[in-house]
Amino acid sequence: MGGAGESTGRHGLRNASWAVLVICCTAQFMVVLDVSIVNVALPAMRRDLGLSVSGQQWVINAYTLTFAGLLMLAGRAADLFGRRVVFVTGLSIFTSCSLAGGLAQSGGWLIAARAAQGVGAAILAPATLSLITTTFRQPDERRRAFGAWSATASSGGAIGGVAGGLLTEYLGWRWVLIVNVPIGIALLVLAVLVLSESRSPGATPQLDVAGALSITAGLTAVVYAVVNTDTRPWGSPETIVPLAIGVALLATFLVIEARVARAPLVPLAVFKLRSLRTANLVAMTVGAGLFAVFFFTSLYLQEVNGYSPLRAGMAFLPAGIGSFIGSLTGVRLVVRLGARRLLVLGPVVAAGAMAWMSQAGVGSAYWTAIFGPILLVGLGLGWCFLPMTQAATAGLPHSQAGLSSGLINTTRQIGGAVGLAAMATVAASTTRAAARSGRLVALSAGYDRAFTICAVIIAVAAVLALMLPGRPTPAPELGDGAPAAAAAPSTRPSKKSLPELRRR
């Protein structure tokens, strides 16, 4: 168990391993929390800093895009330079930039701080999963560890709404960011005391910086173009030019990965693994639904139904409960049903709930229009995280832990950023078209349309999940003692390593 040290004895080693899990789960919880905790605070941020409608989106997407674009670089760095040093570096950046965002005096300052905070999150997130993967080698222990990690990751998004409401109501919106500072400092102390260094043996220390910059810039340009359609038509130069630049940069990224980079961020041969390929497509669609449902539900409750930040935050509590239950029960269900069936069931439940929520209108009662849907959304998406992670890591060797963990996080964040931008544009267009019906009715119509699209996208995730391999026999052990697919008991493992895939 390389991440916990080797000389503490069997009992001490086990305790050290679970201390690593606590540190990693708490850090991942912070990273996921910060995607959603600001949602409830957005109206207050807009009033205090003079943010525009598109500016509200960029408070979310500035964090998400740097997070998504640099995740793979950070995952590779964790494998090459040491998981402990990368974890501590990411946590330090994340904590300091949280403080900078909490002290923001303008919208530009806040968005810049959020972008820098996303850099810290990108460094931190893959290190947490990589540490768990390399610390827990036994299949049962690794499955339980992944279950705990998935529970904190999935519930963090929902609990963020509650925490954001409480902090905004009683301490002000700045505290949704400043709250990370004491937690981050405590984790830094624990990381220094508990974590020991580990890295992939024999790896050449090379990083694909050009690949990371091209995908980050490309995604930012594409999202900027989509957000622009809120006020400009698709055929305008202000939309076409950044969209063309973004597509060109993304194409450049593919060329760099295939032909230029000596150590590519994403060896394209890895996508020959059907389980990994499908899991990342599912993650992209799930991410789009997850980001959008929290963003638009928060705005609907506050701007249409007049909820206070505290009341809006508490309205998200059923989502946190459902997500936590889904993640915990998913540990057993993935064994009984397999990853494919659970990844169909979860999105089907979530998509049905989002379709239900799309029926909400001005003054709709919480208990009939919001409570049931938000609970089921949390439950359905909670069922997705563990099998998604397992499928994404199936068939990859121990040395590629950072690659697989970074990739699954990247695709989820990309789906969230692009999906939110697209749905926000559709919602704004629907609101303008319904303007004659009155402001509240028009806003409600726009949010309902976004919920409907969200339901369709999540339903697509269920269809994609059908492409996963069926339930396999238990995976064999690798030579270094790490199970080939200990993280994926319900997907068919591949015995081919990445070098073998490249030779093909």
Properties at a glance:
504 residues, mainly alpha, Growth Hormone, Chain: A, 2 domains, 0% strand, disordered N terminus
Proportion in β-strands: under 5%
Helix content: over 70%
Oligomer: single chain
Q: Judging by the overall fold, what is the CATH architecture of the largest domain?
A: Up-down Bundle
- Count of discrete structural domains: 2
CATH class category name of the largest domain: Mainly Alpha
Element-level helix/strand string: HHHHHHHHHHHHHHHHHHH
- Label the structural class: mainly alpha
For the secondary structure, the number of strands is: 0
CATH topology annotation of the largest domain: Growth Hormone, Chain: A
What Rg do the Cα atoms give? 21 Å
- As residue ranges, the low-confidence spans are 1-14, 471-504
The tally of helices reads 19
- Major sheet characteristics: none
- Shape, per Cα inertia axes: globular
**Mean pLDDT, as a whole number?**
81
The CATH superfamily label of the largest domain reads MFS general substrate transporter like domains
Span between termini: 32 Å
Description:
The structure is a single chain. Helix 5 runs antiparallel to helix 17 and helix 6 runs antiparallel to helix 12. The chain has two domains: 420 residues, Growth Hormone, Chain: A, CATH 1.20.1250; 55 residues. The chain is mainly alpha-helical. The longest helix is centred in the C-terminal third of the chain and has 33 residues. The protein is built from 19 helices and no strands.
